[in-house]
Design a protein that fits this description.
The structure is a homodimer.
Chain A (H helix, E strand, L loop, with lengths): L4 H4 L9 E10 L8 H14 L9 E7 L3 E10 L10
Amino acid sequence: MSIFDIFTRKRSAPVARERLQLLLAHERALTGRADLAAILQEEILAVIAKHIAIDREKVNVKLDRSDQVSTLEIDIEMPQSVVKAKAS
Amino acid sequence: MSIFDIFTRKRSAPVARERLQLLLAHERALTGRADLAAILQEEILAVIAKHIAIDREKVNVKLDRSDQVSTLEIDIEMPQSVVKAKAS
């Protein structure tokens, strides 16, 4: 299921599963700059992991690279009570 | 221009402008969990800023929230030579 489905799916029943999806696209200019999608992948996952308990088996990461555009797709299905309480 | 445009735009000329776009969607279950899109916004920007010089005037951030889905859209236009050299 891609991130676009979120915006098209008709939902009648309330969401049973909690899900976080991220899509990052880096359009590179002529200079053939470093591929930010690949560079940012682990760091973005680390930021997310600070706030939700991530079960690595429920995380899908897809990295695609063409000559001008790289895309990173992260799809995380979250167990029910996962958001870590704020450190008080 | 939304992130979906990247995937539909027909491009003949090479990309003149370098661009980073991120779309994050948090589908919340019944529990009305905290809104991860809002929580992650600054932290994801901080991760990106570690790798590219960000001109805050060239950054568009859009946060939308419905009862079950929150979406965060970040659109960054990058000046030409921006990716910071790796700290050697």
